[in-house]
Structures are given as C-alpha cells and as structure tokens.
Amino acid sequence: MYGNYDGKNSLRNNIPLLFDLYIGVNLWKTVNISDPSSRFTYEAITVTLGDFVSVCLIRTGSWIPFISLLELRPLKSTLYPAASSSSNIVFSARRNFGEKTDKIIRYPDDPHDRIWKPLTNTANLISTTSIVRNYQTDLFEAPSAVMQTATTTAGINDTIEFYWDSEISNVGPYYYANLFICELEDLSGKDVREIDIYVGGVLWFEHFRPPYLMSAYVYSISELEHLDRYQFTLKVSKNSTRPPIINAVEVYSLQTIGDAAMTNIGDAEAMLAIKAGYKVKKNWAGDPCAPKQYVWDGVTCSNGGSDSRIIALNLSSSGLVGLVSTSFSSLTAITSLDLSYNNLSGKIPDSLADISSLHVLNLTGNCITEIPESLKKKESLTLRFDNNSDTCNGSNSPTGDSPTPATKKKLTTTIIIVISVVPAILLVVLVLIVWRIIRKHPAGNHEVVQAPSETRQFNVDHGGNQMSPGNHQFNLDHKDSQLPSESRQFMYTELENITKKFSHTLGKGGFGTVFHGSLEDGIEVAVKMCSLSSEQAPTFFLAEVENLSKVRHKNLVSLVGYCTDRGCMAVVYEYMPLGSLEDHLTGKAGNSRALSWAERLQIVLDAAQDVL
C-alpha cells in the first residue's frame, strides 16, 4: 500500500505508479497502483532450481518501487503439479464459499498458509463441525476449515453461478480453475447430489458426485478457452435429488518461463559467495546474467544454451581486500578474470589452474605473495602480475596513489530480495511465494451480485489476474492418480520443436501416434500423442505416466516427461533406435539374432520383479 509513505503524494492527476516484479529472471507482474489507500496482493508458485530464489522490484518509470511485506512458504512437490521448471503459477483469486463472516482463513487452519478470502452470503449456507479429510493423492489439499462450509440453493432446480472478467479482452492471460466441492450432509436412502458444471454455457464437467466429508475437486489440466467473462454455472444432473453446492474456488494463470537463460547454478552461487565475502559495492542484484538489461557490473555472460555461463569477470579497482577467494575457481567457464588494483594478499589458490577455459588472469597492483607453479606453467594462460609484496604498504596502485574506482554502469533501479531455502528440502518442495502489498478495499473482492431469484451468482473478480481453465473433456476426478512432478512437463510448443512439427512418424498404437524427436541437448526421444477420440484416453494416459515414472529397468523404456498443455495428452519416452520388440523377437533388428526363449523369459522375470 502506497499510503503516501514518502510524503510526495506521487499518485496525482490520475497517473498510476508502475513498476515490475520479477521472480529470478522472469517477469512476474507489472504492479499498477492507482489508489494510495488500496492494498494490492500478488501471489505465485515457483520451482527452485538452487538453494536460493531472488525476487526483484524493478523501476520502469519515474517512480521508485516499494514493498510492504514479502512471505515465503515451502510446498510439497506433489501439490499444484502445473508449476514446473518451465512454468510459474500466478494466482488471481482464492475464495471460500459459505462463510457467514468476513473471516479470512490461513495458517494454522491451512497448514500451507494460503489466504482464503470469504464470499459472504447469509442465505442457503450449509456447514458441519466434522473434520473434512484429504485423499492421500490430493493435488491441492484444501483445508478442513474451508471445506466445512458451502453454499447451496433453495430449490433443486436453482443454479449457483460465479464469474470473473478477463484482464485482457482479446488475448490472454489463459486461466485455470480449481473447484472444491464436498458433501456435508449425510445423504440416506435414495438421496443423490450430482452436479453438472458449465463454463460460458458449455458443459465443462458432468455427473460429479461429491464424496461425504472428503475434500474433492474438479480442476483444469489445460487452459480454458478465452472469454471476456468466465461465467461458471453449477446445476444438478437429472439423477440428482439435492441442489448443487460448492465450497471454494481457486483461479490462476500459468506463466511460461521466458527465453532468458538463468545463470548456471554453480556460477550464480559462486558470484553470491564472492559478493558476500568481499562486500562488493556494485549494482549486483538478482540473477548475474539475466535479464540482459540487468547483467551485473563487470560480468560477461555467454549467449545461448539452457543456462548462461559467466565467461569474463572484471573486478579491477573494486576495493577487494583479503585473500583471493576459492569461489573464483567455481566459475568453470570463465576465460578472463581481472582482479587488478585491489588489496588482495597471500597465495593464489592452486584450484585456479584447474579452470581449463581460463586464458587471462590479471593480478597487477595487489599484495600477492605467491603464485602457484601450476599457474605459471599453464601454457594457455596470460598471467599479469607485478611482484610488489616487499613494498606493499596499503597502496595498491602502481604509482602509489589510491586506486581509481571502476566506473559504475548506470542501470535502471533494482531492489533485490534473496531468500535462502533449506537445502535438505530442495528436492521435495515447491516454493510458494506470497507477495503481499496488502489490499484493504479490493474492488469487487467481496461483491455478491444478486441474479434472478432462481440463481445464486457471485463475482470472484478482484480486479487483477484471474482464473485459468481447462478442456472439460480431459479434466480428471480427484480420486484418479496424480501426475509425477519429478518428470519433465513439456509445453505443446516444445513438442512441436522437438518433433519438427511432428514430421517423422515412428508408428501407431491403440491410443495414439508416435513421433521421432530430439531434445535441446541432442538426445533422441519418442513422443506419443494420445488420441483424444477415446473416452478412455485420460485414464490410460495417467496410468502410463504414473507407472513409468515409478519403474526403472534396463528392459523397460524410460519416461522422459509428459505434456498436458493446450488440451493435448502426450508421453515422451527414451528413443530405442534398434527396432521394435517385434523386430527383436523375430530377428529383424538390424543384424541381430532373434532373442532366445531363455533370454525372453529372463527379461520378463526381471521386468515383472522390478514392477512389483
């Protein structure tokens, strides 16, 4: 909240205050503050690739960025599977239906400390004091305190409606939605509650029967078709004897990680250690190499590849004091290192000689006492060094004058917050970053729009990002399996690039066509595009991905990843270049002989044992 904290009354003449938020090297959100007394909240989920994550506020105009509160929460890797190394989740709304008061539910009622804001309405509410439990494979784990209340309708043929308006009228963002629905009444006899869900008048999910006192949900696995207004309608199916209900809803978008290549983790950690060890007073904030317009002063990075490497580092006249840090040796792709005209002393680490790419090392104007023989004998290295250790008296300039500070590169103002993540949990968590520039009176946050008497209609639009979507044909019930987060999640455009727009067909199976492809690192893969014409396709797709993610065996093809983007279902396997199983059984696989019966039996036994 701006609140005129700086006394400048910056929000004058209806000119908004704008600046950008970044997670690492990727734009998260452009903050647009138009009211000094309103609070603004931004929330995202990102997958950490190292033991730290950076959150940046970047000045884009005449106003200086500011922040009121930053919160960080770790998540289990099984939650919110849409978050991946290629996509962040950006939330738009999270609403708790059925709450009678203005109570906001968060920790400790929600162990993950998500913020559930109420959609208050005093009519047609049902609740229970019994605990609502989560399934073991629950992808979202809505808390019992949220699921214990719900809104319903007075008549069985009445409908529940809620909506949000698209932030952009013609293109994106593309929304996803999680609808949480739990049966709170112990139905007896022939009583049935069965719900059909519509989006924009089109059937999205049908015949949903919420389980009793178990947290259930219908969710998007691909984006909803773009609409100016996303209108959800819940009505009963023909078999239902009870009216529709809903407990809560989440709305979010997927933010694809851009082309900016993040700095290699080893290089980034080395630079942070150098920065902290020498208390470097430079404009070093965020990722050292990306975005390109914010590369750290004195740092030169490589272009291309899956990550950026630091290839040159110029710290001349930077006020460095003490021993030469061994962290420089972790910059294993560096070609030029300039440490001239500082107050460095002692022995140069032997490990610098192990950097095969290092061609220039400038140590002029320091108080170095010893150069390792391994560096002196390195033929590919140009070593610049003046032996002034006998006369070093605090001045490190060749003329005895104070060193001239390195010219500072003028950059757009950047504020950086670096958050450490406990290394022991890195491989099993997602990081939930809850950015709260708190909003006190969000437009429409709690608005209840009264539709005709037979309809209960709610506006969940909060004036910012909104809900994301999914193709209703392929939404999977919560009781089905979950997709493995440890496997790579491909975007549809990635599959197009990998397969060169599906140009090379390897074969066809009962549930789809298999195409040849190559990953960024040249590894060949087989991409099976599951046919969407079969009603069983989602079931077989999930089973295949789950089973292959759990099994590793030399006689079983390995799972590389999967895709659920744009309504497609695809499985990416390792490529077997020596022919099919049939070829090996019949001896047609190149010049190889047919497998003997003993070999066949042994393969079957080994594979079965591994699966069991």
Give a written overview of the molecule:
It is a single chain. This protein has three domains: 17-256 and 417-473, no CATH class; 265-411, Alpha-Beta Horseshoe (Leucine-rich repeat, LRR (right-handed beta-alpha superhelix)); 483-577, Phosphorylase Kinase, domain 1. Helices cover 10% and strands 31% of the residues. It has seven helices and 36 strands. Strands 3, 5, 6, 7, 12, 16, 19 and 29 form an eight-stranded mixed sheet that branches. The two termini are 56 Å apart. Mean pLDDT is 78; it is low at 394-456 and 461-482.
Count of extended strands: 36
- Classification by helices and strands: mainly beta
Unreliable parts: 394-456, 461-482
Taking Cα atoms only, what radius of gyration do you get, to the nearest Å? 29 Å
User: How would you characterize the largest beta sheet?
Assistant: 8 strands, mixed
**Number of distinct helices:** 7
Distance between the termini: 56 Å
Total of domains? 3
Round the mean pLDDT to the nearest integer and report it: 78
Secondary-structure map with pairings?
Layout: E1 17-23, E2 26-33, E3 40-46, E4 52-59, E5 70-76, E6 87-97, E7 117-119, E8 125-127, E9 133-134, H1 144-147, E10 149-152, E11 159-165, E12 175-180, E13 195-199, E14 202-208, E15 214-215, E16 217-219, E17 229-236, E18 245-246, E19 248-256, H2 265-278, E20 299-301, E21 310-314, E22 321-323, E23 336-338, E24 343-347, E25 360-362, E26 367-370, H3 373-376, E27 382-384, E28 414-420, E29 429-437, E30 455-459, E31 488-489, H4 492-498, E32 505-509, E33 512-518, E34 524-530, H5 537-550, E35 559-563, E36 570-574, H6 581-586, H7 597-611
Parallel strand pairs: 6-7, 9-15, 11-30, 21-23, 22-24, 23-25, 24-26, 25-27, 31-35
Antiparallel strand pairs: 1-2, 1-4, 3-6, 3-29, 4-28, 5-29, 6-19, 8-10, 10-18, 11-17, 12-16, 12-19, 13-14, 13-17, 20-21, 32-33, 33-34, 34-36, 35-36
